[in-house]
Amino acid sequence: MDNRQPPAQSLLKHLPESVLSAAREPAPVHLWHPAFSGELDMHIARDGTWYYEGGPVTRLALAQLFSGILRLEEDGRYYLVTPVEKWGIRVDDVPFVAVRLEVEGAGEQQRLRFFTSLEHEVVADAAHPISVSVDPESGEPSPYVLLRDNLRALIHRNVFYELVERATEHQVDGQARLGVWSDGNFFPIDGEVAEA
């Protein structure tokens, strides 16, 4: 008889109590360097839904807890990390989706506050930039905002339309670019790359 716990339960068992009590706050995963434990049957879909063993994680608090121990490493892979375990997971695009926008102020003084489907929030600023990549084949834009460390949130299409409505032209490296202001920073959203 196999008495081992499923990896997801094992992960939760090895989290410090301070992390468990603050599920929406990220854990100090940059301080933890356990050996690789294996692949976990968990993935995050492009729409931000977390799946474990083929089924969606329906409890928000549980998805928030897992998101707090998520780390993107230099190999381009995502891992769930505790002080003693490190499990690889699959992520279709990026792990978060910004589903709501609040705007404070106007013009160059406005602040754009994004909220994710897991109730994280971030103000776009120099440390949390907005970026847009464009699929070369379809021409579809993929807008992102940096949430924390090197973890980004895909900006939902409806939220991106709100940004487009607020967009203004501004000179960037001698080129007129279409973008938005937030916290005194201008972020191009036209998906073009300025020529050097």
TrEMBL record:
InterPro entries: DUF1285, DUF1285_beta_roll_sf, DUF1285_C, DUF1285_N
Domain DUF1285 stretches: 27-94, 95-189
Cross-referenced Pfam families: DUF1285_C, DUF1285_N
Protein name: DUF1285 domain-containing protein
Taxonomic source organism: Halopseudomonas formosensis
